[in-house]
């Protein structure tokens, strides 16, 4: 198969070099980085044999691809004394109309003519248009090779003016002034508090979402916590002793690792807004990401505090160390039965993809509740207690609940609906993008599918004709464990574009192992908070004649 | 509220007496019977305080209702020597056109004029048209009162000819000749093997389905087993001892009782057939019923045989004592993890609603797997074993699986789909019936809702306008336990009929506590076996001007 593809590449002319994309893309793999966006080599430490295989073929393919794709490019590196540009000038060159400039270190490059030749696809390079390449090369370590630098050098047009300072940081009176830097590729839905999602075209490039691209849903400013003085307060049962656990104490519990997809209840809210206005951030299909989490199991910590399963219904309440101006912290709860079930694998996580948690994701400790809505994965965890009732937090009782489409803000009674815990079956298309123009011949449709409660994805159906006929997609990514399918499946369908079609209405819908399916349309599941949109995902594309 | 209703009743004339139905219906409660259809008084032994309250007000209301509704009926009992009829003559009088006759004991009654006055509604009385009343009075013990007999006596027209024998039984060469007698109200989808469902108008009259009305899904002839010689064979682990358990042995295990709704995967298949032909019996919305089951927990029996949870995935295989001409028994399996989980409450049941299991429902022992498709609730249980693979039975591997609508009998690969275990969220309308004509003013919509896997029903939305707007129905029936919501919720909506409407397109859709919802339409979930139809349920009715 690989040989066949290489053979096909040999007979392609330069004009067709962009087709290399589909061959090369699978060797572009993410590496995890910390918040500093420095280029890094892959640092995954967990067992992923397919990853090392991918890295192996990558060198060969990239070498070949580079020769074929770029051998006719003229050397355009400036031989004279370099021209100087400000960051502002660079940032204004971010479209085909203005020209597309990028920086690497102090050097400035005009890559307008290279965009269509980019082996990862033009859309990916465009994410960096007008700014530095480093944050992206940090994610896609394939770039960290001498011949990639050589190619880039051909497009050099000058350097950054050394007198041009980086943009000033936020004012210190701003409660969000202490928030960490973020990756420029993130699509920001709200700066304060920070809420952002990865662009769809990057979302399913990797089974494991790189930390800097993991969607971020903050409700409050990010606290700046000292790992040395950090303590987790665990309230004991009546008459028992409370625990005060340092990060080192937590590390003394058996370390448990699990790959978990986290999804915000508001994922795909923007489609609900099109039906009728809702209250909430305009998430597209990117409020979902997957990481390998490691930490202490909550059941082990609760057991040490002396908690055991009660006859009556009880809840484990979590409080974050983030708080508003009145000192009210973020809070949420989950049923005690889930917290104490070792098979439910609820974690007090201190690692994300082999790194300490990034600040945006709860440093130093957050809750991870596999199969459950993101709102219960409390970040910057400060306190754990067992209560007869659910958390009295606003986010447990007055938010993150589903209602009938007939309920509005005048009639809503939040006490009538259960708090969202397990999420329903979900899927979305990440490629092609809505409104994109695709070539006739063959189309590749890609996306993700996931279900809550540990239910495995058993099938994804894709339609190219608005739902009249369906084809079964191929499931990629890791196999799912029965009853513990905490992580998504990526999927793809390669299919002929029906002859003569000028447009395609592409739809995906998934099925989980309880044979739950997604509803056809958004309007009948519309709700005033715009949560729980799991209707069929639809993408409309044009076909070049 | 009750006083208000009584007051309203007082001002009604005889012409409006049929409205009494809505007032009286709620006091008509089921009693469980064995297969013999002898009238019985209620024999529920479990705690149901609302039932005794219902029985309390029933006497008062029925007395009043009888006086109001029947005081003008002329006494028509034949004073002369009785006229004689054959059963065949009686059975030919089963419609308003021919007249509506029924029998009670050896007496024959022409109830044509009474049908519209029947406090339980005309449709219920029509179920008995042309035949004996006893099987229905056995279900609705409210009839076993002297004044009801007095009312009936007014309609007597003669007696059954004592020389007219009951219809002959089936031939003994027929493998189904030994099947038990069945309740005449059941809608039969197949006689051999016997497959039948209760009529929708009876289905949600009771939270607990009376045994004779419980839907019956047999794959083979019903075995005739002697409870004294019956043995359940439990295969031990390698090197361990097998168990051979008599019915008395099983009764030595702690007796566990649980209310469980059982649903056939083919429930509502007839709606799928309308999209495109499928292979399977034409079940309407009645292949679902609820009973109070009692027996030994499977986990206790497996523990006694020496089985415990294995590191690798394993399955508990069940074999029935029903078999085809080649000796092949019905079989199915469930994952060992579910079988061994005490919280999953899997039973080896020997009681159904306080009675020994009826023969059609697995006498003397069947499996009950709460939250799981009926096909795994193996009846006439003969053998239990723990295997590394799922049951090799046809019904586990080549049936009861879901596929994409694109898969047909030429392309199907049964190995590609998981066997159905937990079922998805389901709901259906049982009143009014499709095609019925309702009065303008107010409409009452009733139905059931249930989800697999112990997921509770949190909401039922009802639309009267084909899905444009929705109203939230009131949930009746018992409260559901978190994570162990094994039994359905009944629901109802009373709403004004929109003025000027000549027809209504009524729809229901339910939501479970994982916020799973039902899909809008049938076609996109169509599959070649016609299983798993949980699309919105739709009923079209006409409104009298």
UniProtKB/TrEMBL annotation, chains A, B:
Q: How does it assemble?
A: Homodimer.
Q: What's the top EC group for this one?
A: oxidoreductase
> According to its record, what are the GO cellular component terms?
mitochondrial intermembrane space
* Keyword match Methyltransferase: no
Does this UniProt record's set of keywords contain Transmembrane? no
| Chief location | mitochondrion
Q: In which pathway does it act?
A: Energy metabolism; sulfur metabolism; Sulfur metabolism
Instruction: Provide the protein name.
Output: Sulfite oxidase, mitochondrial
> Where is the organism placed in the taxonomic lineage, from the top?
Eukaryota, Metazoa, Chordata, Craniata, Vertebrata
The protein's annotated catalytic reaction(s) are: sulfite + O2 + H2O = sulfate + H2O2
Q: Which SUPFAM superfamilies match?
A: Cytochrome b5-like heme/steroid binding domain (SSF55856), E set domains (SSF81296), Oxidoreductase molybdopterin-binding domain (SSF56524)
Q: What does this protein do?
A: Catalyzes the oxidation of sulfite to sulfate, the terminal reaction in the oxidative degradation of sulfur-containing amino acids.
- Which residues belong to any copy of the Cytochrome b5 heme-binding domain? 82-161
InterPro entries cross-referenced by the UniProt entry? Cyt_B5-like_heme/steroid-bd, Cyt_B5-like_heme/steroid_sf, Cyt_B5_heme-BS, Ig_E-set, MoCF_OxRdtse_dimer, Mopterin_OxRdtase_euk, OxRdtase_Mopterin-bd_dom, OxRdtase_Mopterin-bd_sf
Compartments (UniProt record): Mitochondrion intermembrane space
Cofactors needed by this protein, per the record, are: heme b; Mo-molybdopterin
The record's region (Disordered) falls at 160-179
GO terms for molecular function, please?
Answer: heme binding; molybdenum ion binding; molybdopterin cofactor binding; sulfite oxidase activity
Q: Write out the entry's keywords from A to Z.
A: Heme, Iron, Metal-binding, Mitochondrion, Molybdenum, Oxidoreductase, Phosphoprotein, Transit peptide
What EC number(s) does its UniProt record assign? 1.8.3.1
Q: Its Gene Ontology biological processes?
A: sulfur compound metabolic process
């Amino acid at each position: 198969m690989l040989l066949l593809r290489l053979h096909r590449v040999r007979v392609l002319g330069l004009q067709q070099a962009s087709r290399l994309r589909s061959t090369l893309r699978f060797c572009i793999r993410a590496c995890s980085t910390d918040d500093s966006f420095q280029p890094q080599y892959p640092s995954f430490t967990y067992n992923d044999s397919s990853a090392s295989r991918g890295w192996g073929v990558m060198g060969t393919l990239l070498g070949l691809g580079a020769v074929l794709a770029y051998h006719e490019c003229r050397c355009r590196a400036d031989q004279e004394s370099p021209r100087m540009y400000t960051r502002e000038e660079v940032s204004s060159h971010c479209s085909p109309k203005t020209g597309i400039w990028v920086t690497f270190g102090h050097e400035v490059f005009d890559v307008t003519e290279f965009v269509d030749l980019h082996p990862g696809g033009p859309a990916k390079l465009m994410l960096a248009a007008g700014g530095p390449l480093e944050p992206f090369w940090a994610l896609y370590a394939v770039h960290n090779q001498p011949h990639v630098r050589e190619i880039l050098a051909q497009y050099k047009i000058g350097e950054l003016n050394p007198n041009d300072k980086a943009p000033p940081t936020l004012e210190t009176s701003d409660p969000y002034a202490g928030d960490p830097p973020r990756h420029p590729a993130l699509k920001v839905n709200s700066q304060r508090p920070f809420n952002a999602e990865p662009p769809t075209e990057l979302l399913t490039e990797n089974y494991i979402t790189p930390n800097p691209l993991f969607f971020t849903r903050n409700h409050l400013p990010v606290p700046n916590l000292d790992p040395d003085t950090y303590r987790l307060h665990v309230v004991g049962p009546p008459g028992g002793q409370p625990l005060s656990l340092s990060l080192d104490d937590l590390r003394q519990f058996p370390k448990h690792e699990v790959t978990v997809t986290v999804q915000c209840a508001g994922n795909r809210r923007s489609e609900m807004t099109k039906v009728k206005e809702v209250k909430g951030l305009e998430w597209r299909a990117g409020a979902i990401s997957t990481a390998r989490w490691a930490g202490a199991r909550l059941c082990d910590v609760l057991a040490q505090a002396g908690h055991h399963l009660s006859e009556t219904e009880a809840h484990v309440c979590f409080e974050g160390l983030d708080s508003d101006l009145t000192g009210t912290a973020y809070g949420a709860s989950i049923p005690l039965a889930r917290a104490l079930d070792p098979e439910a694998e609820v974690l007090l996580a201190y690692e994300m993809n082999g790194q300490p948690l990034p600040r945006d994701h709860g440093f130093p400790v957050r809750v991870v509740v596999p199969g459950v809505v993101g709102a219960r994965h409390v970040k910057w965890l400060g306190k754990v207690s067992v209560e007869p009732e659910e958390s009295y937090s606003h986010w447990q009782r007055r938010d993150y609940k589903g209602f009938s489409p007939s309920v509005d803000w005048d009639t809503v009674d939040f006490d009538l609906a259960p708090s969202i815990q397990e999420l329903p079956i979900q899927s979305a298309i990440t490629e092609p993008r809505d409104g994109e123009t695709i070539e006739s011949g063959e189309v590749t449709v890609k996306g993700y599918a996931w279900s809550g409660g540990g239910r495995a994805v058993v099938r994804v159906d894709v339609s190219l004709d608005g739902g009249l006929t369906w084809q079964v997609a191929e499931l990629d990514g890791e196999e799912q464990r029965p009853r513990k399918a905490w992580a998504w499946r990526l999927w793809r369908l390669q299919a002929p574009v029906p002859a003569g079609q000028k447009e395609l209405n592409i739809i995906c819908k998934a099925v989980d192992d309880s044979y739950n399916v997604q509803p056809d349309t958004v309007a009948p599941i519309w709700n005033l908070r715009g949560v729980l949109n799991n209707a069929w995902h639809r993408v409309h594309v044009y076909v070049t004649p």
